[in-house]
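INFO batch 0412 | record 1 of 1 | parsing
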Amino acid sequence: MKLFGHDTSPYVRRIRVLLAEKAIPFERDPAGWVAPSDEFTRLSPVMRVPAILHEGQVVLDSRLIASFLYDRFPSAPPEPPSGHLPLQATLWSPGARYDDENVLLAIDAAIDSAINVFLLEQDGVPVASSAYLRRQVRRVASCLAFVDGLLASGVTLHPEVFSFTDITLACALDWLTFRGRHDVAAHANLARFMKAHEGRPSLAETHPRLALPAPPPRAG
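INFO prediction complete | emitting tokens
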């Protein structure tokens, strides 16, 4: 299996974390989207990361990749490190798929909006001068408030398991903090969630601050 995408992308990172959690071996093409490899541009017409190549099958987009990994590698994940919750055995929590997909949609909406603001600011478009960018900032806050409310007093979205949706949330919050896009600490439940999982090896070893160099991210 080959994974395409740079280390600062929260979308690439969620797949790196899932691969680590399921103990699936893979190789990297870390070129990303700034200077993509010829192989990547040949395989991906959408030109966004992540993408994977496995036994001749190309899979684009992080959600579809996650579904592919659960379908192709259905065996139970390894035991979690001591003190950490086990990875959920299925992509969606039994009986709660559509709730989970709503949460994932909200997380992706927050990240996509934050990336739009980040990249347009780099191009010299200030938020204050753009009604579109101000809406993006409000969307980030609205989505995070929604997810914060769902966590209530827990440290995962479903009791006693760490799911792919939890992975996406952790990667999103770390990226928002890393890029200075939102004050996550303003949401008590999200801050508690981050603290509870910051030492999980799959997350600690893939944090965007470890990426050098750190190119701007791209949604995927």
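INFO post-check: The CA atoms of residues 185 and 191 lie 5 Å apart.
INFO record closed
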